[in-house]
Amino acid sequence: MKKSLLTCTLLLLTLTLAAQTYHLEAVTTIVPNERYVFLQDGDAMSNTLVNKALQTTSNYQAQQLTGTESYVWRLVRKSTAKPLYTLQNCSLDDVSYLSYNTSGLLLTTSSKATQWMLHFQPDGTLVILTKDQNRCLAYTSATLHQYKLYSATLDCTPYNENPGYITVYHLVSDTPIDAISTVHHSPLVPHQVYDLQGRKLHSQFSILHSQFSKGIYIANGKLVVK
User: Fold this and answer.
1) Considering just the CA atoms, what is the radius of gyration of the chain in Å?
2) How far apart are CA 117 and CA 62, in angstroms?
3) Strand, coil or helix: 202
4) How far apart are CA 99 and CA 97, in angstroms?
5) Are 66 and 23 a contacting pair, CB within 8 Å?
């Protein structure tokens, strides 16, 4: 009995500690502080910069993501009046944001990270603009899979390139948000009480009795938290 309970406990703890996984769902609205993937012509916008141009990758998954891939970006809302966000890359150890200066794009850890305006088109695709909307983060061509900054007209089209508008995918959880939800509060007097090491405890008291310190127990075959 003790061994069986201990095995079940370890299994439950393993499931609780299992890595969170996600899949992608196309969206036309942005939720602040959530993670997204920007996809265009079969390539995802990644975190590699070459000659001040942001590269893309075709090596992405449609599901079972961990949320820390190089092409996953967290959108942090910076303004309540305008749809302004910083683009934080989720795969880097430090807090690195997509930014730009007069010479091109860069990744920065500065608190003065570039604020981007995300402008959805009528067809549901997205254009990423600078805060003043005078530059557009645009796809260079079908052969050079990278993004550069171009001067943008009022309709968000660069003067010298078509941006090939971006499709936005949201990372959606495959598992419950919080595994602790499987643990129940219970004032009932259990018949069998064990700790997480599988040791049998006194059964004549309620879990709420002062004999039991705060923690997690196995009572009547269920995880119970005090």
Assistant:
1) 25
2) 26
3) coil
4) 6
5) no
